[in-house]
From TrEMBL:
Membrane topology summary: Multi-pass membrane protein
Gene Ontology process terms (BP): endocytosis; phospholipid translocation; retrograde vesicle-mediated transport, Golgi to endoplasmic reticulum
Gene Ontology MF terms: ATP binding; ATP hydrolysis activity; ATPase-coupled intramembrane lipid transporter activity; magnesium ion binding
Positions in coiled-coil regions: none
Limits of the P-type ATPase N-terminal domain: 109-170
Catalytic reaction(s) noted: ATP + H2O + phospholipidSide 1 = ADP + phosphate + phospholipidSide 2
Places the protein is found: Endomembrane system; Membrane
Protein name (record): Phospholipid-transporting ATPase
Enzyme class (EC, first level): translocase
Organism of origin: Eptatretus burgeri
InterPro entries: ATPase_P-typ_cyto_dom_N (IPR023299), ATPase_P-typ_P_site (IPR018303), ATPase_P-typ_TM_dom_sf (IPR023298), ATPase_P-typ_transduc_dom_A_sf (IPR008250), ATPase_P-type_domA (IPR059000), HAD-like_sf (IPR036412), HAD_sf (IPR023214), P-type_ATPase_IV (IPR006539)
Length: 1082
């Protein structure tokens, strides 16, 4: 249809013609001019555009949190563009947030808009050319460690405070800043290219001059946009027309709500009936749309065409919409744009994930503050001993600079490099294939988890529904008795075909009753759903309109049929009816066809459909049997709501409980036969409620509820969603590791295996949870923390995220959230550590998470092995780097005290730079390869994980222990040089520095628990490098002196005295008080 319209290029002149008054024309011209100035930066979701990208902003978000607008906000958000103000002059008072209001959108006439709307541009950049350098610097210097070294480095420009070469201070700091800026610049460039690519995507726009190509960023409210098959919807639109004969199309919403099942959308009836698509611009019609909302599952609007008599009005609902970020899966569609840019559903639901900082980073930051206090105290003591005479404040400043190495800047560099190495090891682990580390800054968090919050469907289960049971009240059918149902169904339709409507004659009355009940139950299940059978065409290009020839070429065989629905439960039920003999062969907007066991086609007219919602927890359909004219209302839903709808019975509640204990998902099916008068009365009231703009949902619900009285209970169905492989052993492992699991989903029988004798699992529904979170927040969290397991049934994404935040606030422990769907994203982003599973609900949770895995069972190895190693190695690495700075500062303190408290550096130039780089960097960094237990042992004894959550590997106790070690070794080296080299004290630099390097290499060997060949290589390489330096660096070392035998044995004695006692103490500790892991290793 669209091919008959001429194609014109995009016009650069945007002047428009409109048959209005000159005053109105001037008003719209002013609005256009203001719109050009109103190019506010837009943060738009990009997950629908590049699903495999790491810079992912996920949907939906839990809550719009108020941001604190400080300096950080200004640098990263508040000043993204010099022209980002609404007035173009940068005056903030005029940039108040525009109030969201309902709107009337005229088809094909964006110039008639009553107000200006946001541009449909995508902008995911964090900075711009003005704020990039200030923003990156702020993000770096908000850490105390980097800020401290910036101040120290700047002080070297003051001549009175200069104590060494500038490069000894600026080189490490410059390296850190340059590396960070390069990384951020690369990320920003990638975002810029991605935004430009998406904003430049061309779409076909229908105008009075024909079809013109328009960029995605230039689409406006009121434009008629044509979207081809497999093309992304660029903005929120109302669905007007499709090339499909049925007047409907399927869309993929996996990048919007995380669900991979296709959704059926219906075109507006009035516009679908137009002869050609070109007539959309010639009719006078408008769409009244509600104000922009976050809810992606509802929409209230009205379509009105007023150029005909009488005026045509149609109510619009979610079924008539095409939200941005969805993808058209069938046919070509035409829609009118109603929301653009930041007012689209996808952007309003976009949560901007905060930068997560690991607990170990916070602990290290606290330790650096303690070290800073130590620097001030030590400097003050040195000045006090020297005497507060003369320019003592200069001496104090110089001593602070001399002891600045107590706080090593290399600590941040080593930790960041270590985290990169840990992430690489995780992704290279063959035991957990497909694992991706998306946030490389928090791998050690995996070793500190106390609370694990998990989704159920698709995370713990396979999300593959299998029909298991049909219960009729007096008789129950399982998998082993499905042949009986098939026999009853065949018998029923055979007798009906021969003219008997009462069932088989010779059979007893009870038998006829069972046959009839089975027949009614199976027919109800086969009719009450939103499933559509889809057949692939033998030929034809994607997106081409279907012709009669193309339709005739479709293969209508059972093997070529695929069922599409918004829920896998629906598909499982329809597939089951097919196995027992009643097959759904076709469906469109108005009819549905079933094939009986005998091959007969039954046609039913679809009169009304009431879709499933999370509030109603049921769905219904009204159909008319074309062969008999009978009108029947079928309904199915959760037992909690259907119990009050169906007629009184004495078995439903008990059997629902029995099925739930078997882990089955239950649905109650009922029906009600209507007379023609009853249905006509209902249809009149229902259509009137549909046209209501205010409180439409309440009025529709009231009308539907009037139809639900006294329904006949037909059957109870049970569908099983089987657990993934090794879920139970993994859950047991997590529980033995001291991790408390909170599960989101229906209560499952497997939970009983994890409960202790005197403990109870807490099971709470979404409604009850809402009350608890609102009125009994503290009591609920206190109770939940005492339980070994908590199950929250049918809770919303907002509630999931709220539970995470409550645990963080009240318990103060580390939380981990794991899920597989878009509704889990808010929980994943709120947790200290988020894990996503790439499953059948799409990649949304996987891309939004910090870590992505392919199966739930992989979380055991991820936490027990990699979490343990990452935390233990990070703790050892950070403490050893601190020790490396403390020992040289202790030596500086002894040196200054010996030489009358002179503020003179012990080492200068390359020795200070080389000490933390080429001489000790490789052995110290090789600690990232160390491990205390083997992976097999960590998996076999998850109880070892409990010690990690206590944070004992890096605590004030271990910190002060390393302080004492550093003071002891620094003092021994300096005083040893005084005692053994009294006559050669002029060579104090060569004596002490050699002993210092050897001591550091031996301390690395002492710290290592499991040797790796790279560790040995690093030790030997550093030793060779230092020996070569003794020969080459003549300005620091006297070659004749260092080659003497006296120098060698005396240096060895000093080194031995500084290290041997520590080796002895470590041996005694392992012998008389060994750690738990060493007992298991032995």
């Amino acid at each position: 249809m669209a091919d008959t319209i001429p194609l014109y290029p995009v016009r650069t002149n945007r002047s428009r013609k409109w048959s209005g008054s000159p005053q109105e024309d001037d008003r719209f011209s002013v609005a256009e001019d203001e719109a050009r100035l109103d190019e506010m930066p837009l943060m738009m979701s990009e997950e629908g555009f590049e699903a495999d990208d790491f810079d992912y902003h996920a949907l939906p978000k839990a809550k719009v949190l108020e941001q604190r607008r400080g300096l950080a906000w200004f640098l990263t958000n508040g000043c993204k563009s010099p022209s980002s103000s609404c007035c173009g002059c940068g005056c903030w008072p005029c940039c108040r947030r525009r109030e969201l209001r309902p709107r009337t959108v005229w088809l094909g006439h964006p110039e008639k808009s009553e107000e200006k709307y946001p541009r449909n541009a995508i902008k995911n950049q964090k900075y711009n050319i003005v704020t990039f350098i200030p923003g990156v610097l702020f993000q770096q210097f908000k850490f105390f460690l980097n800020l401290y070294f910036l101040i120290v480095s700047c002080s070297q420009f003051i001549q009175e405070l200069k104590i060494g070469y500038l490069y000894t201070y600026w080189s490490p700091l410059g390296f850190v800043l340059a590396t960070t800026m390069c990384r951020e610049a690369l990320d920003e460039f990638r975002r810029f290219k991605r935004d430009k690519e998406m904003n430049s995507q061309l779409y076909s726009k229908l105008t009075t001059q024909g079809i013109v190509n328009v960029k995605s960023s230039d689409i406006q409210v009121g434009d008629l946009v044509i979207v081809e098959k497999n093309q992304r919807v660029p903005a929120d639109m109302v669905f007007l027309r499709t090339s499909e004969k049925t007047g409907s199309c399927f869309i993929r919403t996996d990048q919007l709500d995380g669900e991979t099942d296709w959704k059926l959308r219906l075109a507006v009836t009035c516009t679908q009936r137009l002869p050609t698509v070109a007539e959309l611009v010639s009719i006078r019609a408008n769409v009244y749309a509600e104000k922009p909302q976050m809810d992606i599952h509802s929409f209230v609007g009205t379509f009105t065409r007023d150029d005909v008599n009488p005026t045509i009005s149609e109510s619009l609902s979610i079924e008539n919409t095409l939200w941005a970020s969805t993808v058209v899966a069938s046919g070509m569609v035409v829609g009118v744009v109603v929301y653009t840019g930041k007012e689209t559903r996808s952007v309003m639901n976009t949560s901007h994930p905060h930068n997560k900082v690991g607990l170990l980073d916070l602990e290290v930051n606290r330790l650096t503050k303690v070290l800073f206090v130590a620097v001030l105290v030590l400097s003050t003591v040195m000045v006090a001993l020297k005497g507060f005479d003369g320019p003592w404040y200069q001496y104090l400043a110089r001593f602070i600079l001399l002891f600045s190495y107590i706080i090593p800047i290399s600590l941040r560099v080593n930790l960041d490099m270590g985290k990169v190495a840990f992430g690489w090891m995780i992704m290279r682990d063959d035991e957990i294939p497909g694992t991706v580390v998306r946030t490389s800054t928090i791998p050690e968090q995996l070793g500190r988890i106390v609370y694990l919050l998990s989704d159920k469907t698709g995370t713990l289960t396979q999300n593959e529904m299998v029909f298991k049971r049909l219960h009729l009240g007096t008789v129950s059918y399982g998998l082993d008795s499905m042949d009986e149902i098939q026999s009853h169904l065949f018998s029923s339709y055979t007798q009906a075909a021969s003219g008997s409507q009462k069932g088989p004659g010779p059979a007893p009355k009870v038998r006829r009753t069972v046959v009839s009940r089975v027949h009614e139950a199976v027919k109800a299940v086969a009719l009450c759903h939103n499933v559509t059978p889809v057949y692939e065409s033998k030929g034809g290009a994607a997106g081409e309109p279907e012709t009669d020839d193309a339709e005739s070429e479709r293969d209508l065989s059972d093997d070529n049929r695929v069922y599409q629905a918004s829920s896998p439960d629906e598909v499982a039920l329809v597939k089951w009816t097919e196995t027992v003999g009643l097959t759904l062969v076709s469906r469109d907007l108005s009819t549905m066809q079933l094939r009986t066991p005998g091959g007969q086609l039954l046609t039913f007219s679809i009169l009304q459909i009431f879709p499933f919602t999370s509030e109603s927890k049921r769905m219904g359909i009204v159909v008319r049997d074309e062969s008999t004219g009978e009108v029947v209302f079928y309904m199915k839903g959760a037992d909690s709501v259907m119990t009050n709808i169906v007629q009184y019975n004495d078995w439903l509640e008990e059997e629902c409980g029995n099925m739930a204990r078997e882990g089955l998902r239950t649905l109650v099916v009922a029906k009600k036969t209507l007379t023609e008068e009853q249905y006509q009365d209902f249809e009149s009231r229902y259509n009137q409620a549909k046209l209501s703009v205010h409180d439409r949902s309440l009025k529709l619900t009231a009308v539907i509820e009037s139809l639900e009285r006294g329904m006949e209970l037909l059957c109870l169905t049970g569908v099983e969603d089987q657990l993934q492989e090794n879920v139970r052993p993994t859950m047991e492992m997590l529980r033995n590791a001291g991790i408390k699991v909170s599960n989101r989903g229906e209560a499952h029988l497997e939970l009983n295996a994890f409960r202790r004798k005197n403990d109870s699992a807490l099971v709470i529904s979404g409604g009850s949870l809402e009350v608890c979170l609102r009125f009994y927040e503290h009591e609920f969290v206190e109770l939940a923390c005492q339980c070994p397991a908590v199950v929250c049934c049918r809770c919303s994404p907002t509630q999931k995220a709220e539970i995470v935040r409550l645990l963080q606030a009240h318990a103060g422990k580390q939380t981990c959230a794991i899920g597989d769907g878009g509704n889990d994203v808010s929980m994943i982003q709120a947790a200290d550590c988020g894990i996503g599973i790439e499953g059948k609900e799409g990649k949304q949770a996987s891309l939004a998470a910090d870590f992505s895995i392919t199966q739930f069972k992989h979380i055991g190895r991820l936490l027990m092995v990699h979490g343990r190693n990452s935390y233990k190695r990070s703790a050892a690495l950070s403490q050893f780097v601190i020790h490396r700075g403390l020992i040289i500062s202790a030596m500086q303190a002894v040196f200054s005290s010996v030489f009358y408290f002179a503020s003179v550096p012990l080492y200068q130039g390359f020795l200070m730079v080389g000490y933390t780089t080429v001489y000790t960097m490789f052995p110290v960094f090789s600690l990232v390869l160390d491990q205390d237990v083997k992976p097999e042992t960590a998996m076999l004894y998850p109880e070892l994980y409990k010690d990690l959550t206590k944070g004992r590997s890096l605590s004030f106790k271990t910190f002060f222990l390393w302080v004492l070690i550093s003071i002891y070794q620094g003092g021994i080296i300096m005083y040893g040089a005084l005692l053994l080299f009294e006559a050669q004290f002029v060579h104090v630099v060569a004596i002490t520095f050699t002993s210092l390097i050897l001591t550091e290499l031996l301390m690395v060997a002492l710290t290592v628990r499991t040797w790796h060949w790279l560790m040995v290589l690093a030790e030997l390489f550093s030793l060779v490098i230092y020996i070569a330096s003794l020969v080459l660096l003549n300005e620091f070392f006297d070659t004749a002196f260092i080659t003497s035998l006296t120098f060698v044995w005396k240096v060895l004695v000093i080194t031995l005295v500084s290290c041997l006692p520590l080796y002895i103490l470590k041996y005694l500790q392992r012998k008389f008080s060994p750690p738990n892991y060493s007992k298991l290793s032995n």
